[in-house]
Write a structure and sequence with these properties.
The structure is a homodimer.
Chain A lengths: L5 E6 L8 H13 L3 E7 L1 H4 L8 H4 L2 E5 L10 H7 L4 H11 L4 E4 L3 H12 L9 E7 L4 E5 L9 H19 L5 E5 L10 H12 L4 E6 L3 H4 L4 E3 L2 H28 L2 H19 L7 E5 L4 E5 L5 H16 L2 H9 L1
Helix pairs in contact in A: 1-12, 4-6, 5-6, 7-8, 7-13
Chain lengths: 335, 335
């Protein structure tokens, strides 16, 4: 690591658009951030051509470490991490463990990223299970939602720990003063919730160090009625994808209707500035990074369908997390 | 019951806009359907004024049965049904049990509707737990989603029975030929799912009588990649509300942006026909009825925030369910 440099290991082979879009995002990030150094792991012959257009400055901060194996998107996660010791994903994570890199990023197999986080990078001593969190743009504010898929079902203690980690993330990384932390439930009344949620509620209510506001319901998430929303990974996974599909679907219907009608096309011309403003506000590609919280190093996941701009966004998020000592903040808060 | 008449008992005191909007919806439905007879249960003094404007024909098919108690929206459901024997909700359900009405509708306390369905109307002998289902307009087709909140967590056998009931509903009520029935999970691969979902999957795969297509993910719901989507009530409740909030939130942001900009307002004028078409396509108020499947009678729940048009929609759905012998179809399919 150079003086004042931030080194991130980037799995260049992970995701649906690897290595091309991953490399393009890497170049974008190095052009933008003069302190960023990237180590791309993967098939060097396939990677190099995509780095050719980088400026001299960026080029000097883009290294390639060859890896001959790739973890496939549908592989059994734990097995893949255990057996594919020379995979691009595992190599990136080993660089975090050894300290050669301050963090790593992959758009690959989510389960394998979580398994690698636990098996290669290692859990924080006070954490039973790590969680994937995602900052969502809502009507009122940024809401940090976790877990969105590191685990499937969670015990009360897991939900409790997610809440504490989410609180730290919201405070230290997003910069919210006294984050409102809530549990996602099927109603706001105390009698609602399944057993895990109810027990986590009791545990959180007793913790005086966070601003726990109780339950929120499904519609409170898009309205932004909390800074941190905690749920299990099965739920987080489904609602995140459901929301994605709903927004894309609405877009498709609008395009179809546009194709059938003439007047709306004229109307759209007038509306373009607004449409652009809306897109910018809800562009998930821009904030593509999903940190894996609870492991002993910076591990960030990008969406499997990430294009260059999403990789750029995720690298920015990873850099930010490192600069703000995210891992250390969580470790200290949970001790 | 008159010759060829369809009698529905309507809880006139249930929901946030009772009794006014409930009564208005009742009048609308009786004006539209000449075969519909409604028995409104509740405070007769409060109800009658809202029925004054009905035509003579509709008026002759609008009866009021006085009830002096009301189940509140936040009351403990089972207790409320057990103790409030003269509540408008319980009276409506008792009319179904006694055969005085072919079905009942309430926009009141969801838990109490489910409890009343089980305790007053009674379960079908082959069903362990009833489910609330809702037909969702999606990009490609109508998708019937259940359970959306009759239970919280479900055992594999419950999910299995929901799938069978959803299959019957899609086939006989919506009119789909060979409904594609799927389980909602956190991925489409076989290794995904929690224990309950995985076991239900095995049970459904062995049942040759339905077209079970395996898992769908969150984004498959708005895209309409199945005719029937099965999940537990906790999940169903959250994603339904999440979707509602997301669509309302998007509308709010668009209005805000409109307020700030001049050109979009001109654009909107050109787009109004399209906006209207879109609204009509996604107007949940129009399809406000959520049948409680697995009980021995027609019990339909309407959204707590229902206005007259939603009550009209839910009454239409209840009438349709009765005309198509929905309860009998489910009973026969499950025997």
């Amino acid at each position: 690591m150079g003086m004042g440099k931030i080194t991130i290991a980037l799995d260049a082979m992970g995701g649906d658009n690897a290595p091309k879009e991953i490399c393009a995002g890497a170049v974008m990030a190095c052009e933008k951030f003069g302190d960023l150094e990237l180590v791309l792991t993967g098939d060097s012959e396939k990677i190099r051509p995509h780095l050719a257009r980088a400026s001299q400055s960026a080029s000097s901060r883009l290294r390639v470490v060859h890896a001959d194996e790739v973890v496939a998107m549908d592989e059994q996660p734990t097995l893949a991490i255990r057996k594919k010791r020379r995979s691009s994903m595992r190599l990136a994570m080993e660089m975090v463990r050894s300290g050669e890199a301050s963090g790593c990023l992959s758009a690959g197999n989510t389960g394998a990223i979580v398994a690698g986080g636990v098996l290669v990078v290692g859990r924080l001593p006070s954490i039973d299970r790590p969680a994937l969190g995602v900052p969502l743009p809502t009507i009122r504010r940024w809401t940090f939602l976790l877990d969105v898929g590191a685990s499937i079902r969670s015990k009360p203690l897991n939900l409790y720990q997610y809440a504490l980690m989410g609180n730290v993330y919201s405070k230290k990384i997003i910069g919210v003063d006294e984050p409102e932390v809530a549990l996602l439930s099927n109603g706001t009344e105390e009698i609602k919730g399944d057993e895990a949620v109810m027990e986590a509620r009791d545990m959180l209510a007793k913790n005086g160090s966070i601003n726990f506001t109780g339950y929120v319901e499904g519609d409170d998430v898009p309205w932004g009625r909390a800074d941190v929303v905690v749920c299990d990974g099965f739920m987080g996974n489904v609602i995140l994808k459901f929301g994605e599909g709903l927004m894309q679907g609405a877009g498709t219907i609008i395009s179809e209707e546009m194709g059938r009608r003439f007047l709306p096309k004229i109307g759209l011309l007038f509306m373009l500035p607004m449409v652009r403003a809306l897109r910018a506000r809800f562009d998930y590609q821009k904030y593509g990074g999903t940190p894996l919280l609870g492991v002993n190093g910076t591990v960030v996941k990008a969406h499997g369908r990430s294009k260059a701009s999403a990789i750029f966004g995720a690298l920015s998020a990873a850099r930010d997390f490192i600069m703000k000592s995210g891992v250390q903040q969580i470790r200290e808060a949970l001790e």
